[in-house]
Amino acid sequence: MIWLVAFLSCVGLICAEAPFNHNVHNQRVIGGHDAKPNTWRWQVSLQFDSYNDGSYYHMCGGTIVDSFFVVTAAHCILSTDVSLYRVVVGEYNLYEYDGSEQFIRMEKIIIHPDWNGDLGKGNDIALLRLANPVYDNGYVAIADLPYPGQMLPHGFTCYITGWGLMDYGGSVPAILQQAPINVVEHSVCSQPNWWGSIALRTMVCAGGDGIISGCQGDSGGPLSCFTDGAWRVHGVVSYGPSGWCNQVSKPTVFTRVSSFQDWIYSVIQSH
Predict the structure, then answer these.
(1) CATH code, domain with 23
(2) What is the value of pTM for the model shown?
(3) N or C, which end of the chain has less CB nearby within 10 Å?
(4) Which pLDDT score is estimated for 62?
(5) Active-site residue list
């Protein structure tokens, strides 16, 4: 099943140099537009130093869920060597130093114990334990999460954010992108002409209109939805169709955060 999501493989396409080794290979929310600065303050850029030479590349998104923890997709973890990673919080323009960023090393990677590399089996979630805590500089925030087990109704509008490809094989954004994206309930997403049996109840489907979708580089990033009086992160970008990202009846699929909250909190409390 991993080949269904070749666009989410986090293979680098472009790198650019900027202060603090702001090197990024990047990919973008399709159908989106520039987010306003300091809007999605729980959004993280997970960056990887593939040659261990101090040049970092944006590979995936992530979400701040605790001052010491970031949640991302398990398939974003290319190596268990924590020295090759950093997270950047307070990020906006990947190619420039905005003054709002915090560059933080990782101390530990905790992948969900039931993740087996098969995206169609689910459990595509991991927690990153930071070496130093995120501090409140006015540009970051710990994400609110949904209620355990909460499922969103069909057509509910959320937002996908990230630095993913703007179109398949297309241009790369410097600035964080956002796009409204509508939830596709499980009874629809699991139909044979949609995602069929690999759309599980532990996932959230959104999009599938052929216009708006996640794409390469958005993996691990948040699906943010305004529910119960607050913006809450309901999903972690997991997979989508190979080739063109914005295909009709092939929505972006997210790991459903409300299905994994017990695990998230247990990891945070035990580490």
Answers:
(1) 2.40.10.10
(2) 0.89
(3) N
(4) 98
(5) 75, 124, 219
